[in-house]
Every structure is written in structure tokens, then in C-alpha cells.
Amino acid sequence: MKPLHPFLLALVCLLLLTPLAANAETLTDQTIRSFISSLEALQDMEEEFDELTDDLSAEEEAAEMPDMSRLFSSSVEKRKGHDAYNRMEDVVQQHGFSSAEDWGRTGDRIFRAWSALEMGEQSGEANREMARAMEEINNNPNMSEAQKQQMREMMGGAMSAYEQAANAPEEGKRAVRPHMDALRSVTSEDGDY
Asked: Which residues form the signal peptide (predicted)?
């Protein structure tokens, strides 16, 4: 079976795993700035987390794909009970969050709004990639009909998630929009927070 184009596979995974539901709490400029600063501080402590990250990576390899809608809160949950959790909680509290869990929930909301903005900016290219992928799936002689159907269902889910992104709350997107460059910068490094 011919593998899908890497960009398309990443896009499909992101779209399938990123429900973009509305959030009850409003994201403020200060909250977003504090979150970005906390990410930078946590990345500066990367060596302290290396052993834990290795342990968690081994656990995650055995698990299914991560829930992108809970990327940060699930990261916090996985660290509970480890020495690194207490250090992480100290850092996020120094940046104005009441707890590591509060920080994780805030990160999830920021990530969802950011994802909606990123997908919106790339809508034309994404639509072309999805159409091309559907054509590749339908015309692939090395895939059984069952495999093609499974891929069509995944693409349908990706298209549905993409439509949800288009309908993401404007309030969250407006709050995150001025911080997109900073978010890209802080997450372009190899930190996993």
C-alpha cells in the first residue's frame, strides 16, 4: 500500500484529533502571555524532565494517538506522581496559574483557538490536499475496498473537524491571534509542553 503524503497524514491526524468546542472561560491577553512565558520556563528546565519524558514516551508508544483537544491537560495528568510534577507546578504557579491542572486546561483552550486560526489560514491548501488524498485513496490499486473505506471515513472525520475549526468561537481566536508568532516560536523547539 502506498503511504499518504506526510503533510496530508499530519493534517488528517490534527484535524481528526482536534475538536474545537467553545470554552466557558474567556482567554485574556495576560493569561495567554503568562502561558507562553511558562512554556519558555518549562523548556529551560528540559534536562530535568528528560528521564520522565523518556518514560512517558515509552508508555505513549503502547497507547493510541494522543487526544489533541487535551494536549496540555493530559501531559499534566501523566506527570502526576513524578518528582517533575511538583517542579512543573511551582513554575506554572509562578506564572499566575492556580495549579498545574489550571495551566493544562488553559493550554488546551489556547491550543484549540490557535489550531482553528492555523487551519483557517491554510484553508485553500488543506482543501486541495484533502481532495488529492481522496483521489489517491480511490485510485490506489494496492488498497482493498475495506482499507479504502476506512481511509474515506478518516478523511470524512478530518473534513468534519475542519468544518468545526471554521466555526470555532471568535472570542478565543481574537484573543490568541496577536500571540500566534510567539506561540509558533515557543513551540518550534523540541519541548513537549
From this structure: 1-24
